[in-house]
Each structure stands twice: as C-alpha cells, then as structure tokens.
Amino acid sequence: MTPRFLIADDHPLVRAALSETLRRRWPDAELLEAADFDSVMARLAPADPLQADAEVDLVLLDLTMPGSHGLMGLMLLRAHAPTVPVAVVSAQEDADTVRRAMAFGAAAFIPKSASVEALQETIAALLRGDLPPAGPVAPNAETDDRDLYQRLASLSPQQLRVLAMIGEGKLNKQICFELGIAEQTVKAHASQIFRKLGVVSRTQAALIMNRLGA
Length: 214
What we know:
five-stranded parallel β-sheet, elongated
C-alpha cells in the first residue's frame, strides 16, 4: 500500500522537514500539504464530494496553524473525517498539552523535538494500526476536559464550525456568508450551541473557545 499523508503546518520549513522525513521511510508516498486549516478541511471535507481527494491515511496536524483554534481544529477534523487518524505534531510538548490533545481525539502526539527515527516509528505504528485510536476522552483526562469534550461532541460538524466563527468574533451575517447558509439558520445553530454548551451568550461561548486554544 502506498500511503497518503496530509501535512498541515503553516511553516514551510516544517512542512519540508516532515516531507523529507516521510520520503526517507516511504519513498513512494503521496504527500499533500496545507498551510492553513481551511485548506485542510478542503482536502478532507470539500463542499463538492466529487472534488474530494482520495482517502488520506494520516493527517499530521499542527495545533497552532491559522484557523485551527487549537483543539477545536482537532475536533472539527474528527467530526468531518472520523475514519482518518490525526497525529498532532507540536512544538508544545508539556504534559498538559499532550494529555488534552489525546483527550480530544488525536491518534498520537509527536513532539517536534522528536528524532527522525522516533517520528517514523510512531507513524509506521499508526499505519499498521498498532496504536489504538484515541477514545472519546483519555482515561486520565481532567474532569473539566471530560465535561467540555462531551458537550462539544454533542454538536454537529456544522455547529462546530459556527462555534469556531463565534469564537473569532464574527457576526451572524458574516457566518452565513462564509458558510453559504441563511442567517436564520445561523441563529438556529447558535441557539442549539448555547443550549448544548450550557451558556446564554456569544461571550460565554467565546470563552469556551478560549479554553480550546493550543
């Protein structure tokens, strides 16, 4: 099998380094790149299914790339492409970041300080299916994270997108324009988001987005 990787990072040098690392182990691999989160979503969940790329075997995701909103980006990917494993590749290597990334759906966490060999071995294990896919919440996740994940998991993929845009401070008219939906639909989504998250305002919803920041 010839693997197909999607390298999602806004730094060209990082994408080049990851590409070279993958080529050394899988010389025939097909490598796709994305410099922002919208490009990642376009690869995995295009508006027109006929324009979809062939199935990607693994996404290598930087949590801090433009538009990802940290852990929200990870959740959006898992919602839109649940069969595609996502390995977080991050310069933030503290235990809390690792724990939260795994809790919110990452199949693996690869620090950018990892050796070439370690990165290759982790990816090889993911391709073989040796590493179990991340469950809904890691067993050692903090109670707050567990509760937050469960509330966010109750949102539909479209509601997650609307929440991300609310977190960016966008108005309903801007959201409906970008998503191509009626303003009344945006309002209905917002109402459902507030109810499921247990908040009563856009400000409170935005604060939840802040908790998801990488």
